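Protocol step 6 of 9: fold each sequence in the batch and record its structure tokens directly after the sequence line. For illustration, a two-sequence batch is reproduced in full.

Sequence one:
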Amino acid sequence: MDASTPIHHHLDQYYTTTMKKIFAATSFFSTVLLLLASSLFIQGVEGTIGVNYGTIANNLPPPAKVAQFLLESTIINRVRLFDTESETIKAFAHTGIAVTVTVPNDQIPHLTKLSIAQQWLKIYIQPHVPATNIVRILVGNEVLSTANKLFISSLVPAMQTLHTALVGASLDRRIQVSTPHSLGILSSSSPPSTGKFRQGYDTHVLKPLLNFLRATNSPFLINPYPYFGYSADTVDFALFRPNSGVFDVNTKLTYTNMLDAQLDAVFSAMKLLDFPDIEIVIAETGWPSKGDSAQVAVDTESAALYNRNLMEHVTSGVGTPLMPKRTFETYIFALFNEDLKPGPTCERNFGLFQPDMTPVYNIGILRATARSSIPMNPTPEPPVTPVYEPPQKGAKRWCLPKTGAEVETLQSNIDYVCGLGFDCRAIQEGGPCFLPNTVRAHAAFAMNLYYQATERNDYDCDFKQTGSITDVNPSYGKCKY
């Protein structure tokens, strides 16, 4: 999606029509399961979930404040920018956050000349490296969907020339070059096994592009949006809700969500050109929290459900029917609601956060405390002497982390519980349970907080098999469990 265009995203008519036809016959379970689906535990998110940082608004906080917020208050460690604005890139210096920048479409023809590409690097990239962790340059955005012959014919040559300039600056091993596509590049997508690129673009543009990506070990970027392909009959399929699935008669595989179908249609098209080995990155996907009155499932609940289930799915390692056991680097659209975007109401309401950085809804990406991971210079933990209380019938029990539980998983436990809105102030700096300042100690408080607030069933302390129930009170000093 081009952040500068009036309408968020347009799928080609063929795609939308055929997707709706094949999914129309799908039957679905009751929406009573919504709360169960929305409470899915997010694990392994930190390395692969990013966010698109659009700025078409007049009320956004300064970039430095945004960068600090992402670093200290969220688990997001990847950001995609829609330009190369210097102040924004500089704001991410020394944060370690992986930054992707974008060359505007109208600059593409100029970058086919090596001297201009070299000058572009010197102006927009090299002053920020290595302080800012720039990992990828995107040449344009959804260029094939613009129907601009000059932009399209210049796309691959510009990518090649820019890569040559990166080699000359010894940055080619640090920074990849790619370009994102809408699903409009497909002429066929339903069922997924019939995925095919548009005739003409397939051999003249996409095959050379895929050759370049393979040679430079760079990914193919796609902007799949189930939101733009769903109908009232297929909303469960689009939102990852339980449903009976859609059967692909060619592969004998069943699809349980629309995103997998979209990704596999792209994979099939790539395979048809003999490029099944190239990594696919989800450059954009999301769901608006507000739309026009006639729209179905355009609300905060649906947006939260889509993005939470998206995170769970792409990081689970399950993959898709045609790409099993894969995870996908994924960028949610978008970081903020953007009040100056033209078009329908939904265009201004794809954000995870309001401009004041309060969440529009919760999907488990907020940290419990500022940088509550393992301290760089940890202080010795003070001895904790549990208060023993002999078990009695109906006596209180506590939920604590199991010995040997992975630190990353325990951090996810903290993020999940505190992200649900439970009061985690006790483990924030200055709180009675802040010390010892370790992930394990903070996870113990958070996991028990959740367990005590529920019905204290054994499964309320499961936390992906990292929790254990004890009858020994872990309270110490002023830290009361």
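Sequence two, same batch, same settings:
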Amino acid sequence: MEKLAELILIPSPAMGHVAQMLELAKLFFRQNHHLTITVLIMKLPDYIDAVSGPFVDSVAASSSSDRLRFVHLPAADPTPEWSSKTRGHFVYRLVQSQRSHIKDFLISQSSGNKLAGFVVDMLCTPLMDVADDFKIPSYVFFTSPAAFLGLMLHFQFLEDECQQDVSLFKNTDGSNLLSFPSYAYPVPPKVLPMVLVDRDTWRGRFLDFARGYRKAKGIIINTFAELEIHQLDAYKKNNCNISRSEQDQVPLPPIYPIGPILNRSKSKSESEEAEIKNWLDQQPTKSVVLICFGSQGSLPLDQVKQMALALDNSGCRFLWSLRQPPQSNNAQFPGEYTSYSEILPEGFLDRIEIKGKVVGWVPQLKILESIWCGVPIATWPLHSEQQVNAFQLVKEVGVAVAISLDYCERNKDQPMVTADAIEKGIKELMETNTTVREKAKEMKEKSRASVIEGGSSYLSLGKLIDELLKNAAL
């Protein structure tokens, strides 16, 4: 029997990252029959995130492929210090704690399949050291846009090679726009993400991640060439940004834009999904706005009430995924409310009974993959790199209108987004901005063309698979 090339995937232990990594595995399987894949699963404790664990368990239980297996790494024993900081810090420490477990896993393997490589999540680069110890090539799966990859690498270059404190960018006068290679237009300082300009976050985690990207044998990106033309060209041109500590000039790793990757995995019970879908099916075409901030997003109570007022006044039909902010410590993920009537304005649920629906978790990526479906966006960033992503969608790609570009949940002085501003953004999205709708339709067609045989992402994935198979043959 022919031996298969084995690929080891290591997702970050948050639901959105796990889901994308699993869809990446399916992509590999659809385009090649000579790969087998092992997914190493790190679980967050239930008191941190009660959603991701059951989601992973359900996906693993429903997998019918004999070429896909899931290995659960031993549970970590987090110290109190882990939970005293942010969710990102907790995950970072959890990832680092798994080095010895992954070494033990590799030592114990005797499947006979030849290892083609490690694919580590963009937030799991510390685990590349384990692959190096076993002389296994490492690839990074970058789930954010190519523009943000370029920004991270540029900031790492400024920090390491130019001895520049990049956190000082946040003090730039707001009227002075900043030019960066991976953005076609100058960037307002206010949209630079906290993960880059907050000194503790940058030097404590993200600088380390960026250094890891440069060491990878390749970077897999969930984007497609037609979406980020400038960004991918800038990446190729910026291969001159190399480490002066290297005796020989080492270019940046090759990049493989293989998106858009769609998440079709289940995240709720079938009955809950059916209820939401049935309600949507009863609404007129293109009449519903989805309000959703993802698995890690939630709003404070006063901001929730402004949102409710805006939705009430707008007259638009809506589906609102309303999540409860973490209650006990900084590392927790948002959870579910037990009652919406206690937090929403009096009478709101009665008034919107026909035109709106408020739920906890929604199967967001089943209801909507914005660019894939040609649906325009109203931006309201909360965390991570979402601020600069919002800027890119509005100013460069043209598929979005702005409710906010610079909202940040970690900013204690963050001004509230008023109901008037929210209502204005929703109405522009749903009623007046035809240019954004036309651009969204255009990108829908380009995204679908990219993944069919002969498309840019299809060809890029083929090149990646060829390289992986060559690795296994060595």
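Proceed to step 7 once all outputs are recorded. Observation for sequence two: Residues 240-248 have pLDDT under 50 and may be disordered.
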